[in-house]
Design brief:
Layout: H1 5-13, E1 33-34, H2 47-59, H3 67-70, H4 73-86, E2 93-95, H5 99-112, E3 119-123, H6 128-141, E4 144-148, H7 158-163, E5 169-175, H8 187-196, E6 200-204, E7 223-226, E8 241-244, H9 246-249, H10 288-304, H11 306-328, E9 334-335, E10 348-351, H12 355-364, E11 367-368, E12 370-372, E13 376-379, H13 388-404
Parallel strand pairs: 1-11, 3-4, 3-5, 5-6, 6-7
Antiparallel strand pairs: 2-8, 7-8, 9-10, 10-13, 12-13
Helix pairs in contact: 1-13, 2-10, 4-10, 5-6, 11-13
Length: about 425
């Protein structure tokens, strides 16, 4: 690979989704080399106008009359995500609560659907909230948790998972893309293996949705959740989505019985009777303003096309890896993600004994990655708005910081004031 800046500029000139960069606030104007799109995506230029419309027209003028359009927002935006991002069908995706709450709802519903099975399986290196929810549900129900070990860099070995599956397993909770390393799971193969064992698998798509194809219907996925503030650019605290395969919906009853999941909602009846379809997984009043922001981000991803974004994401990652090998390895920095781009999501992680200090030095110089324990610098060049030359310049800055040793003057992670 040609590692010159001119080569990076040539890749940008040939980029089929390059024009989308101009549709994000600050991109190219704020001076930042932003490589943290896998934590929080940039704000689309159209988002303020969308929020203003809801506030000034629908709320200020329409008042309560606007509920005629608001009441269906969670399913409308869900259908947009289903078709344009997730490879699902209409009426299979709902947007509303947080990822943690959605995970809890679907996990309890799935466990109830497998009576007589008393084991929940999760990955020992998965995102903490996933493991916490699994542990909490197991404790409340008198179930056992099997935490399957995974390599912190390479991700879950499918043969290790297969060995953990037996007739006691009710539900398996896994991430499609590992939050720390970016390791990409084989969603179709794992789903088949779990189904063959008679269990259900619940996928967390938080680091996948909008960055890699997940093709829920084609891969036979039963259940999934994911956030909308990373590659979907819905904004901080944006509501999550949940997916339930249509054929499974009426077999499941989620544990939080709220009035938005009730059949004949405005009859205000005395007994909870869940509505048929995806709406039975709703709970309370939808976050109308937040849904308007999610809709803007989801439309941009759908317009760009997940396949094109995934291809660019792989190429950006390959540039990170090649530059890290050439420039950073002499300074003791090692790749902490799968080397094969087909086994990686859209972020790349590097290991360094001075990861925390390096991260702080970079932020002070206008390069924004993030730090993950124990000694990882995570680089997430979101393909919708990140240029190849941004990656080149950021990696050049990392090389300069390491060569100068300036990061050594920063406090260590353990001594920092929080």
């Amino acid at each position: 690979m040609d590692l010159t800046r001119a080569a990076a500029e040539a890749l940008d000139a040939a980029d089929p989704v390059a024009a989308f960069r101009a549709r994000f606030a600050g991109a190219g104007e704020d001076g930042l080399l932003y490589l943290d799109g896998n934590s929080l995506g940039r704000m689309p230029v159209a988002t303020p106008a969308a929020l203003t419309r809801v506030v000034e027209e629908e709320w200020a003028r329409g008042l309560v009359r606007s509920w005629s359009s608001w009441v269906g927002a969670a399913t409308r935006v869900g259908d947009l995500l289903a078709e344009g991002v997730l490879g699902a069908g209409p009426g299979e995706v709902l947007v509303g609560d947080s990822t943690t709450v959605d995970l809890y709802k679907l996990l309890v519903a799935a466990a109830d659907a497998r009576p007589g099975r008393d084991v929940l399986v999760c990955c020992a290196d998965d995102f903490p909230t996933d493991r916490y929810v699994v542990a909490g549900v197991a404790q409340a129900r008198g179930m056992t948790v099997r935490e399957v070990p995974a390599d912190v860099d390479e991700g879950l070995d499918h043969s290790v998972l297969a060995a953990a599956l037996d007739e006691r397993v009710a539900v398996v909770v896994l991430s499609a893309v590992a939050y720390r390393s970016g390791a990409l799971a084989d969603v179709a193969a794992v789903t088949r293996a779990v189904r063959d064992a008679g269990a259900l698998v619940l996928w967390d798509l938080s680091h996948a949705a909008g960055a890699v194809p997940v093709d829920l219907a084609a891969n036979g996925v039963d259940l999934a959740v994911g956030c909308t503030y990373k590659y979907l650019n819905g904004g901080p605290g944006a509501p999550a989505f949940l997916y339930v395969r249509r054929e499974l919906q009426e077999q499941l009853r989620q544990p939080i019985w709220g009035w938005f999941g009730q059949r004949d909602q405005f009859a205000m009846g005395p007994v909870y009777d869940p509505v048929p379809g995806i709406e039975r997984f709703a709970v309370g009043t939808p976050p109308v303003l937040a849904l308007a922001a999610v809709e803007v981000g989801a439309r941009l991803v759908a317009e760009a096309g997940v396949d094109r974004l995934a291809a660019k994401g792989r190429a950006l990652g390959e540039l990170v890896v090649a530059l890290a090998d050439d420039w950073l390895a002499p300074h003791g920095v090692a790749l902490a993600s799968p080397r094969d781009p087909a086994r990686r999501g859209a972020h790349v992680t590097l290991a360094s004994s001075a990861a925390w200090q390096l991260t702080q030095a970079l932020v002070d110089r206008g390069v924004v990655p993030d730090f993950r324990t124990p000694d990882r610098v995570r680089l997430g060049p979101a393909p919708l708005y990140t240029r190849f030359v941004d990656v080149w310049d950021a990696m050049a800055c990392i090389r300069e910081v390491l060569a100068s040793g300036v990061h050594e003057g920063y406090p260590t992670e353990r001594s920092r004031v929080t």
